[in-house]
Amino acid sequence: MAAKQNITLSVDKHLLKKARVRAAQRGMSVSAMLAGELVRIVESDTTYEQAKSRALARLRAPFHLGGRIADRDSLHDRRHLR
User: Fold this and answer.
1) What is the pTM (predicted TM-score) of this model?
2) What distance in Å separates the CA atoms of residue 77 and residue 25, rounded to the nearest whole number?
3) pLDDT of residue 14
4) 55 belongs to a structural domain
5) 26: which residues sit within 8 A by CB, 6+ positions away?
6) Which of 29, 46, 56, 64: CA 20 to 30 A from 19?
7) What was the pLDDT predicted at 82?
8) How many domains does the chain have?
């Protein structure tokens, strides 16, 4: 288990009162509730960054849509339009 570090946090009294109620409803302390939220935020950011990296890698790779590659002459041939 990783070593834990205490932090000091300043919040509005009314916010702290609401946080205590919410934590009690969840059966945990305010400290545990905030620690859990910090974990969720960090993991969410990590997941987003990983997805972003994968998406950018896919954009850099060629993407074949199927079909055949036409040459310039066949693309500019206008005989069939006359």
Assistant:
1) 0.56
2) 74
3) 97
4) yes
5) 33
6) 46
7) 59
8) 1
> CA–CA distance from 82 to each of 16, 26, 29, 73, 75 (Å)?
79, 77, 81, 16, 15
- How confident is the prediction along the chain (82 residues), in pLDDT tens digits per residue? 689 899 999 999 999 999 999 999 999 999 999 999 999 988 888 888 899 999 998 888 877 777 878 888 878 877 766 5
Within-domain flag for 78:
no
Query: How far apart are alpha carbons 47 and 41 in whole angstroms?
Result: 10
Q: Which two tokens stand for residue 26?
A: 């969840």
CA distances from 36 to 22, 32, 54, 55, 74 (A): 13, 6, 27, 28, 62
Q: Say if 28 falls within a structural domain.
A: yes
